Amino acid sequence: MSLTAKDKTVVKAFWGKISGKADAIGKEALERMLIVYPQTKIYFAHWPDTSPNSSNVKKHGKTVMGAITDAVGKMDDLVGGLSKLSDFHATQLRIDPVNFKILSHNILVAFAVNFPNDFTPEVHVSIDKFMSAVSAALSDKYR
Amino acid sequence: MVEWSDAERSAIASVWGKLGDDAGPQSLARCLIVYPWTQRYFSTFGNLSSPAAIMGNAKVAAHGRTVMGGLERAIKNIDNIKATYAALSVMHSEKLHVDPDNFKLLSDCITVHAAMKLGPSVFTADVQEAWQKFLSVCVSALGRQYH
Predict the structure, then answer these.
(1) A79-137 pLDDT per residue, tens
(2) Looking at beta carbons, which residues of chain A come within 8 Å of B112?
(3) CA separation for the pair B98, B74 (Å, rounded)
(4) Of B13, B113, B8, which is closest to residue B55 (Cα–Cα)?
(5) A126 phi and psi, to 5 degrees?
């Protein structure tokens, strides 16, 4: 389900709207994921604290959202652009790719809850496609 | 048997009470737009050619209300959703021939609608957890009679 020119325009425009809140969105998405899908906590067993508002969660939410924002600028070649990050997830982090879908869902919920007037169905479909494409690029080097 | 804590029952009832009358129409329209292959089940619904057409389609809206009616039965029989949905599951399998993966797609759109309607201070992570647990029990019950 490849990104059309329209999808790319919609994603860039929406990112422009949320850019001021990107860090907060990343934190909220991660918090929601850890609570709603508690099995994802296994990847953070090395953190003393996975509760909402912990400094680890805040910092990591910012890191993840920063990388996704970066990917917005690489939509013309996500597999190439995210190649190093894919290597890292495949060989070092070894996160089961099913979790990319889970985090994507919680990012969408964070968008919906904070930007109800902007997260229209037309925006939703393009963002969902973008997150799926990012997830696919991130899984590219797994095997 | 699904166990519900008091906090979960309270959260689910609270979300249900705040969803609004347009929840069904909005959620179904969103599903048909975000996951356009789901339109395959609605070939008799007339014009689904654009997001605007789908959002304004009276048959989509009516059907959205029907779906919400089904969810209301689950809310009212929350301790026995499996039995409550047995006949509905057979109907979706034998008569409507709906791919059960689609139930999850629609439930995700209902969750997004709830998030937009309720806002971050009401639709907290704990409330989201209870709400999604409720929807996943409904989804599971609807898929149970498929063979």
Answers:
(1) 999 999 999 999 999 999 999 999 999 999 999 999 999 999 999 999 999 999 999 99
(2) 108-109, 112, 119, 124
(3) 19
(4) B113
(5) -65, -40
Q: Token digits for A131?
A: 């997150």
CA gap B119, B123 in Å, rounded: 6
Rounded-to-integer distance, Cα B94 and Cα A38, Å = 35
- A90 CB neighbour count, 10 Å cutoff: 17
Nearest CA in chain B to A24: B120
Cα Rg of chain A (Å, integer) = 15
Contact residues, chain A, for B51 at CB < 8 Å: 120-122
User: pTM of the prediction?
Assistant: 0.92
Reading the block at residue A133, the tokens are 């494409």
Phi-psi region of B57 (alpha: psi -120 to 50; beta: other; left: phi over 0): beta
Q: What is the ipTM of this complex?
A: 0.87
Residue A129, chain B, CB below 8 Å: the answer is: no
